[in-house]
Amino acid sequence: MTGFDPAAAGWAQVDNDQMPANIGTPWRKHEDGRWIYGLRTRPDHANPAGAVHGGILVAFADHTLGCYVEAAANGAPNVTIQLNTHFLSAVQPGEFLELRGEVTRATGSMVFVRGIIAVGARDAVALDGIWRVFRPR
């Protein structure tokens, strides 16, 4: 997917949502009634072996799965408690990541989510996690 143009494929940058450490600005599109998040990987995301560093993938997942949590928590502040990550295949710099996530359970103070990061039809990372929601008392 190197050279993929997200804008031409219906994606829009989330301009007010810069990810930490200048990793990049996420993209999103609404498909089949839910949001999907994307990230264009760059050469400076590479690890010494030449693949996108796992830390980049985890930071992207943590940030964008948090968007699903925020929606489920009606905008209440939240923090990641646990994020389980299963690396399935290497991602090459220049490839466009797509994260499809879902809330599997929400209580008054916890939200459980899972997702898959894919590059095209290839699954790259499987994730699940728990977020703590801070509600006013």
Describe the structure.
This protein has 137 residues and is mainly beta. The chain has a single domain (7-133), classed as Hotdog Thioesterase (Thiol Ester Dehydrase, Chain A, Roll). Helix content is 14%, strand content 42%. It is built from one helix and seven strands, in the order E-E-E-H-E-E-E-E. It has one helix at 54-72, and strands spanning 12-13, 27-31, 34-40, 78-87, 96-106, 110-119, 122-133. A seven-stranded antiparallel β-sheet has the order 1-2-3-5-6-7-4, covered by helices on one side. Strand 5 (96-106) and strand 6 form a beta hairpin. It starts with 11 loop residues before the first strand and ends with a strand.
CATH superfamily: Hotdog Thioesterase
Q: Biggest sheet: strands side by side, in what order?
A: 1-2-3-5-6-7-4
Round the Cα radius of gyration to an integer and report it.
Answer: 15 Å
Shape: globular
What percentage of amino acids are in beta strands?
A: 35-45%
Task: Give the N-terminus to C-terminus distance in angstroms.
Answer: 47 Å
Q: SSE order in H/E notation?
A: EEEHEEEE
Topology:
Elements: E1 12-13, E2 27-31, E3 34-40, H1 54-72, E4 78-87, E5 96-106, E6 110-119, E7 122-133
Antiparallel strand pairs: 1-2, 2-3, 3-5, 4-7, 5-6, 6-7
